[in-house]
């Protein structure tokens, strides 16, 4: 990778991080202030996803090899939790609609989710530790670039195969969970037609449609690029593997911003809140311009009368 190409890539990532911050803050503030009472639990899933996305963008990287591995594992761990946060919304919506008499306590949801997070960390940490290798022990010395800001992984072996396969399985499970529970929820909605008011059914359909849109963004702009990036890591000598991996990283870095914008547009209470806030900001400006025009017209009329007199 040539030096100008690398500099341009780094500037794109810097611009992505700068753009990400105000959009993320706006989405979090709107979600906290304008979520209706009947969407409080669902908003917790959305806030959880946004929180993990925000953490990824603020993780630093260092020239120290050990600290670099720790930070890279934290990034991968955050990506896994984003996948869990996205996929967990659909089982919740299905259980909440299909079994309305079964109350889902927040403490139970929190306990199950925390258990899933800790289980993933307990599984992937030893797998990651087996995959890494120090700079001095890397077997293919002729492929090593400069040591600065570089972390190394085993270029072959069972540890590499298990790690790559595990991440691919996670992406596939997320897609299967989203598609499967969406189909189950649609089936439950169709079954209850005529039993429940059509207004309530339409509301659940709108929520499901919004969730599908919000989930498709992490899958398309996060999951699929992650699969390509993992494949380039698995086959690093494939032509243009580095360039493809770089493009995938840029797309994944921007998926959070796309997701936040989509959330503010797709979910009706958030869209209404943003629209009202924008209108409130614009109204004083319009009034000021209108008053300025009126003052100019009054001045012209006075001057005209004075000249006529």
TrEMBL record:
InterPro entries found in the cross-reference section: 7TM_GPCR_serpentine_rcpt_Srh (IPR019422)
Transmembrane regions: 12-34, 41-59, 71-95, 107-129, 164-186, 207-234, 240-267
Coiled-coil ranges per UniProt: none
Alphabetical UniProt keywords: Membrane, Transmembrane, Transmembrane helix
Protein name (record): G_PROTEIN_RECEP_F1_2 domain-containing protein
């Amino acid at each position: 990778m040539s030096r100008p190409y690398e500099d341009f890539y780094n500037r794109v990532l810097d611009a992505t991080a700068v753009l990400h911050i105000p959009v993320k803050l706006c989405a979090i503030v709107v979600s906290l202030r304008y979520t209706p009472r009947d969407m409080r639990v669902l908003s917790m899933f959305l806030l959880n996803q946004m929180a993990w996305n925000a953490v990824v963008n603020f993780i630093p990287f260092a020239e120290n090899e050990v600290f670099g591995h720790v930070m890279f594992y934290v990034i991968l761990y955050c990506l896994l939790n984003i996948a869990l946060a996205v996929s967990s919304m659909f089982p919740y919506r299905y259980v909440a609609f299909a079994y309305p008499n079964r109350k889902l306590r927040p403490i139970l949801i929190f306990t199950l989710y925390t258990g899933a997070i800790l289980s993933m960390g307990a599984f992937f940490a030893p797998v990651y530790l087996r995959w890494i290798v120090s700079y001095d022990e890397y077997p293919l010395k002729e492929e090593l670039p400069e040591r600065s800001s570089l972390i190394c992984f085993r270029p072959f072996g069972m540890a590499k195969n298990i790690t790559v396969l595990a991440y691919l399985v996670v992406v596939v499970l997320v897609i299967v969970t989203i598609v499967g529970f969406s189909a189950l929820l649609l089936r439950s909605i169709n079954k209850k037609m005529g039993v429940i008011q059509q207004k309530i059914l339409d509301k659940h359909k709108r929520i499901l449609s919004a969730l599908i849109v919000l989930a498709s963004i992490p899958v398309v702009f996060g999951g699929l690029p992650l699969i390509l990036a993992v494949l380039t890591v698995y086959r690093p000598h494939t032509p243009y593997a580095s360039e493809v991996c770089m493009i995938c990283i840029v797309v994944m870095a921007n998926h959070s911003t796309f997701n936040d914008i989509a959330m503010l547009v797709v979910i009706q209470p958030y869209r209404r809140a943003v629209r009202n806030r924008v209108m409130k900001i614009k109204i004083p400006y319009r009034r000021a311009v209108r008053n300025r025009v009126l003052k100019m017209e009054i001045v012209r009329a006075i001057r005209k009368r004075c000249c006529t007199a």
